[in-house]
Amino acid sequence: MSEHNHTKIAQLEQLGEEVRTLVASPLFAYRTANHYLPVIGEGKVDAKLMFIGEAPGEQEAKRGRPFVGASGHFLDELLKSIGLERAGVYITNVVKDRPPENRDPTSAEIRLYTPFLVRQLDIIQPSVIVTLGRFAMDFVLNLFEMPEQGQKIGALHGKLLQATAAYGPLTIVPLYHPAVALYTGERKATLLEDFQILKQFI
Prior knowledge:
By secondary structure, the protein is of the alpha/beta class. Helices cover 45% and strands 14% of the residues. The chain has a single domain (3-201), classed as Uracil-DNA glycosylase-like domain (Uracil-DNA Glycosylase, subunit E, 3-Layer(aba) Sandwich), CATH 3.40.470. It has helices at residues 3-20, 28-33, 58-63, 70-81, 107-124, 134-143, 153-156, 178-183, 185-195, and strands spanning 42-43, 49-53, 90-93, 128-132, 161-165, 168-175. It has a 6-stranded mixed beta sheet, with helices on both faces. A hairpin with a 2-residue loop joins strand 5 and strand 6. Helix 1 runs antiparallel to helix 5. The longest helix has 18 residues, at 3-20. The model has no long low-confidence stretch (mean pLDDT 96).
């Protein structure tokens, strides 16, 4: 393993430790009371593709890993459909702790966890960010102050949007959330189709 990757691993471990001890988080007490774990993210430290969801659900918080429930299995299927394994990409969420009853994260929670995601981006430096679901899409469009801010996921899903990160140019690909696809066959077909656009980046 390169020295460069060793550094990245060390930086991500440091970040993980900060999230684990983040007593300032309004979700910290809920995590502790339920014996949950924070979900920092996992995958290749120099991945070209980074997948970003909203926040961990119950299965994720129990295991401390992103996308391990039913929607995670479908995400694995989607990755396989373009010849990728989970280990070849990096997967994380905007918010690193589970909100109670899977409610939407509050603006205060988003503000608190945003710097961690920004640091993950700076460490991993992906050339493509794939947002999973409306929430993650809105967050990333705002983060990079993109002209598409405020547009609906129905209009933007499967499109290649251009942004600029601190480390260079970046492609943003908004996709529907795998969980949504589990409930409607139509969305599932759309997501499988949209996913194929990522082949060109492998």
